[in-house]
Amino acid sequence: QVQVVESGGGLVQAGGSLRLSCAASGRTVSDSGMAWFRQAPGQEREFVAAINSEGRAQYYGNSVSGRFTISRDNARNAVYLQMNSLKIEETAVYYCAVARTSSGSYYYFSRPDLYDYWGQGTQVTVSS
Predict the structure, then answer these.
(1) What is the layout of strands, in order, in the sheet containing 78-83?
(2) 4-28 pLDDT tens trace
(3) Full DSSP string of the chain
(4) Residue 47: which of 60, 37, 57 has the closest Cα?
(5) pLDDT tens digits along 29-46
């Protein structure tokens, strides 16, 4: 069993930045892809970014490409999401998830049903 805990959310003005952290425990996740999803009230869970187990391949949702950066530290069993130029419409709960495999394609990593472990989420609120 893997426990996943997100942190770093909060209130930020539009155009600002936040860095989210995700810490995994219970077993190493260095052999698993990791991802961030987000969900706004009344909307479906949306893929944000993913990274393969070695950290050599990253995948981004179209709306965040060029502004968000996903990274990982396998020594710390952690993954991070640097979010820049935040927009009001990106207000949501951000979730970290552990994938079933170490690597894959954008199509694979963007599917929330292919992740086994999820955190409780961290709220990000972007204000005007």
Answers:
(1) 3-7, 18-25, 78-83, 68-73
(2) 999 999 999 999 999 999 999 999 9
(3) --EEEEE--EEEETT--EEEEEEEESS--TTS-EEEEEE-TTS--EEEEEE-TTS--EEE-TTTTTTEEEEEETTTTEEEEEE-S--GGG-EEEEEEEESSS---HHHHT-GGGEEEE---EEEEEE-
(4) 37
(5) 999 999 999 999 999 999
